Amino acid sequence: MISKKVNSVTEALAGVQNYQTLMLGGFGLCGIPENAITQLAKLKTIGLTCISNNAGVDNFGLGLLLQQKQIKKMIASYVGENKEFERQMLSNELEVELTPQGTLAEKCRAAKAGIPAFYTPAGYGTEVAIGKESREFNGKMHLMEKAFEADFSFIKAWKGDEAGNLIFKGTARNFNLPMCGAAKINVVEVEELVPLGSLNPNEIHVPGVFVQRIFLGTNYIKPIEQLTLRD
To answer: Please, what is the Cα angle at 221 between 219 and 222, to 5 degrees?
Structure first.
């Protein structure tokens, strides 16, 4: 058996260095790799380019890295609820590349599939199109978007086995699925780590071939970004 299991988050993040490009799964605060982000904050690596749907909130998720000025560039689809992200962007302390959400997902998926670039109509005629090649297909203009190139992807899954086969839970599948396998080294933290053969093959969302390291996460907080209740 090929085991992808590592014994700690410290071992899982071995090789992370300054000025690297990182992918981080999740949507809002749903399904974010909490343990990996906490360890990144402890490592205090600088000059990072982070690819994520958004950047968490001020005191959680990628907001922790923004507070310490570890992120040089954010590639995301929206600013979200993070006031520090907004402040750094408006003051030009942080380079921000806002990308249509579907394009962001496809740039991840293309990297995972080994596709260097693709065409999409999203963003044509807007600031998103500046500096990009365009081409007409079936009477409609499209932009050429290049697949991401990342050093690490950090993924959160509900359950996984020691070979790296993964099962996500509900909407926490989000960006975790296309990002897993889209980087040179793909690191997964799971809530439950089981022996090989324990998972039903028909329920596996990502096969272990896309995973290089997997570890058992701890102390998940799982906060709600916006809690709305009826009177």
So the answer is: 135
